[in-house]
Amino acid sequence: MKELVEYIAKSLVNDPDAVVITEEIDIENGTVLKLKVADEDKGRIIGKQGRIAQAIRTIIRVKAAKAGTKASLEII
Questions:
Q1: Exposed (0-12), middle (13-18) or buried (19+): which is 61, by Cβ within 10 Å?
Q2: Taking the CA of residue 18 as centre, how many other CA atoms within 13 Å lie in the half-sphere pointing to its CB?
Q3: Sequence-distant (≥ 6) Cβ neighbours of residue 58 within 8 angstroms
Q4: How far apart are CA 9 and CA 3, in angstroms?
Q5: CA–CA dist 37, 15 (Å, integer)
Q6: Quick one: CA dihedral 30, 64, 15, 47, positive or negative?
Q7: How far, in Å, CA of 61 to CA of 66, rounded?
Q8: Which of 28, 41, 43, 76 could disulfide-link 37, Cβ–Cβ 3.0 to 4.6 Å?
Q9: Helices (H), 1-76
């Protein structure tokens, strides 16, 4: 899942070298992916009214559901 989010994020931003994703395991929420991008690229990741961020979160939840786990995304 980490690789999928990394691929999507690097495709959207102007500075793909600044994309950093950390993965944490939480007992309640399953896997928590934390996405950090350059300050000037945060708007590109979030999108108008949060639509791009919501789409990425939906993709992560679907992939996690197929694997039988839970996952969430935090944009830092």
A1: middle
A2: 13
A3: none
A4: 10
A5: 8
A6: negative
A7: 9
A8: 41
A9: 2-12, 42-46, 51-67
Q: Cβ distance 72 to 33 under 8 Å?
A: yes
3-class state of residue 57 by DSSP:
helix
Tens of pLDDT, residue by residue, the chain (76 residues): 899 999 999 999 999 999 999 999 988 879 999 999 999 999 999 999 999 999 999 999 999 999 999 999 999 9
- Closest listed residue to residue 47, CA positions, set 75, 23, 19: 75
What does the angle CA 42 – CA 44 – CA 67 come to, to the nearest 5 degrees?
90
Paired strand residues for 48: none
Torsion, Cα of 66, 51, 27, 7 (10° steps): 60
